[in-house]
Amino acid sequence: MNRRKLIYIAVLTLVIAFMDITGIPSVFFVNIQIADIEPIYFTLMINFLIIGAIAFLFLRMLCPEWELGLSGKGLIDGLKKYGIIGVVVAIAGFIAFYVGLSPFDRQPSIEKVFIEGIVYYVGVAIIEELYVRGLLLNLIEKMFVKSKNSTLIAVVLSAVIFGAGHIFGVLNQPLLVIVSKVIWTVGMGIFFGMVYKKTGNLWLPIMIHFLINVCALPYCFSSINGYADLTLYIIIPVYIILGIYSFMELKKEA
Questions:
Q1: Measured between alpha carbons, how far is residue 77 from residues 54, 66, 176, 189, 203 in Å?
Q2: What are the pLDDT digits (tens) for 30-64?
Q3: Domain range annotation of the chain
Q4: What average pLDDT does the segment 119-147 reach?
Q5: Quick one: how far is CA 171 from the chain centroid?
Q6: pLDDT band of 252, cuts 50, 70, 90
Q7: What's the pLDDT tens digit per position in 212-231?
Q8: What is the pLDDT of residues 150-208, one digit of tens each?
Q9: SS3 for the chain, per residue?
């Protein structure tokens, strides 16, 4: 792929990341109130649709040869090999959130649980995997194509950027929370990147990403927005182990 196309992909990646982090442009015109659902969720979900449309048109018109891996190839084998790991990590996350948030002080509507706890995370998984793994990871790999460790470098660097990007959501939290959030999202990112490069299928990390995120469902039943220390003590070791495992899996072929 020529340099111009790589620049196109870099620009698209930056645009999507900016839109994802800021909620622009939907924050300027979307304010939907239904039941007890926080309006910001509708704003962000509509923004996901806008991002998806932009990415589709951009890739189709300027970089039609860019391979994202949005097909059925490698999906079944990947689920057999990595699906159980994803389920175990998701369960660990659910337990961590559950014990950290107990006792629960909210009685949300079914609509709130469905939208905030499930539907929203479908969009998160698709959009984040699209630009972090499908675009950024592949872009970095192509930039380091002359290195025998290009895939390993791309997975780790994209995971670090993925982790750093989550700082914005916890800036008002204690330092322990900020550091912990970065550590666990970096570990998560290395795992998603490893799964993606091992299978060549982007749907697989999307599915596992969604499964892991939806296990934050207990937050719908609590007024707490941060993370209890107990939650961090459970979840951080899990993602450190996951990151090390994923790194070693990639190292085997480096």
A1: 31, 23, 38, 20, 12
A2: 999 999 999 999 999 999 999 999 999 999 999 99
A3: 68-251
A4: 96
A5: 18
A6: confident
A7: 999 999 999 999 888 999 99
A8: 999 999 999 999 999 999 888 889 999 999 999 999 999 999 999 999 999 999 999 99
A9: CCHHHHHHHHHHHHHHHHHHHHCCCHHHCCCCCCCCCCHHHHHHHHHHHHHHHHHHHHHHHHCCCCCCCCCCCCHHHHHHHHHHHHHHHHHHHHHHHHHHHCCCCCCCCHHHHHHHHHHHHHHHHHHHHHHHHHHHHHHHHHHCCCCCCHHHHHHHHHHHHHHHHHHHHHCCCCHHHHHHHHHHHHHHHHHHHHHHHHHCCCHHHHHHHHHHHHCCHHHHHCCCCCCCHHHHHHHHHHHHHHHHHHHHHHHCCC
Q: Residue holding tokens 């949300």?
A: 108
Q: Which residue has the tokens 């070791």?
A: 237
Q: Which residue has the tokens 């380091």?
A: 144
Residue type, 225: N
